[in-house]
Amino acid sequence: MVLFACRGAFNCLLLAALAGGAFAETKVLQNFNLIDGTGKSVVPNMTMVVVDGRIQSVGPNLRTRVPSGADVIDLTGKFVMPGLINAHGHVGLIKDLEQDPKYYTRANVEQDLRTYASYGVTTVVSLGTDLDAIYPVRNAQRGTRPSMARVYTAGRGFVMRGVNPPALGIRLEVSTITEVNSKIADLAKNKPDFIKFWMDDNFGRAKTITPELTGAIIASGKKRKLPVAAHVVSLQHAKIVVDQGVYALAHSVRDQPVDDALLTAMKQRGVWLLPTITRESAQFMYAEKPAMLNDVFMTQSLSSQTVEALRKPAYVAASQADPDYTRNKSMLDMAERNLRRSFEAGVNIAMGTDSGAVARFPGFAEHWELEMMSDAGLTASQIITIATKNGAQFLHARDLGTIEAGKWADLLVLNRNPLEDIRNTRQIHSVYIAGNKIKSAPPAVR
Fold first, then answer.
1. Containing structural domain, residue 351
2. Are 70 and 30 in contact (CB under 8 A)?
């Protein structure tokens, strides 16, 4: 420590500067295998210097000088990759298997963000179901070093009054263009990061928001430089909103194969796809894969009441009796095929899961999504890039997403190589957010 006396603010700042960063927190991670998030191969025997939560340098062990007094962390045999970025999740609304706005408190929001972080999900976009408690949490994180997952928010999303889906106390209802403009102006006062709307006719069984209103939402968002994400199911609706200038499709098209016209338009206009494959699987998987409930990697963040409820024969029977049970399985297959085709067409893709809704569990869902992207035919390297670098690009977050000098040290440290098997992202050794080590989830049961 360097001690000095000073008089006046300017002199104190000058002396602090002359002290050469004596008060900086410096961590040095040594002897690890680097996966930097850019798609490059693993680089062994690396050292990273982290100062005040940002990466100062990363390079070969023998070429990297270890600053005097640094906290040195030996990661021999470990694999270090960027933290996962979930571009479509939710926070704050769930208690056990019940969703209700009454649960939306700052404490519940922060608990969900700690859960995401424990699984190595270091950034999450909460897309369209947030009440006002989200903004103090989000604002407190900006420009600082959070100890929970970074959160971006769309605030409350938009639906058309009296049609599908219902508002449920969390969505904003509109019926005219005047009302759209008024409510977006009010929403914008809190400076959300996105705008979200739902366009979903429940497989033709209900009315949904009109193209007139979706066009007005997108135009109003662009006027305020707020990117707009659309919940869609059908190819028809996807084409409408892409033509109107939407920034992202918050789910894959699931009713039929995507066609060249949509893929070409998305690529030319830079529209993002957030596939959310696990959203489809969660509609029926508890009736078919009860063994998952024996995996501590999944259940360690759940209450005993939640696990017990999922195991009950009545819950399994209710899942199997869902009138859309068979359709949901076909939609999962369609979502996987459309993801593969979209990727091959060069569409922008970031990882999204729709986690944080009922029975779609934060943290676990993201690792499950990675596995399902592999099932869809993507390589582990491609998947990791989608879940890290691409997520940062989706957010226009230049200091996130890859392991490079100047970026925040948001890191997922693994016991096994995820490029050999994407399921190895579950083999968590430790997690860092802005250089802060946080409590991480246990390794997966294999």
1. 84-395
2. no
153 and 39 in a single domain? The answer is: no
User: pLDDT above 70 covers what percent of the chain?
Assistant: 94
Tokens matching residue 444: 């997966």
Query: Is residue 444 assigned to a domain?
Result: no
Amino acid in position 222: K
Is the domain of 238 the same as that of 374? Answer: yes
Find all residues with CB under 8 Å of 352, minimum gap 6, and list them: 86, 87, 88, 89, 125, 127, 250, 251, 274, 275, 276, 369
Q: Residues 78, 104: one domain?
A: no
108 and 56 in a common domain? no
The continuous run of DSSP H or E covering 70 comes out as none
Q: Is the pLDDT of residue 382 over 90?
A: yes
Average the pLDDT over 36-54 and give the result. 97
* Model-wide pTM > 0.90: yes
Banded pLDDT at 438 (limits 50, 70, 90): very high
pLDDT at 18 over 70: no
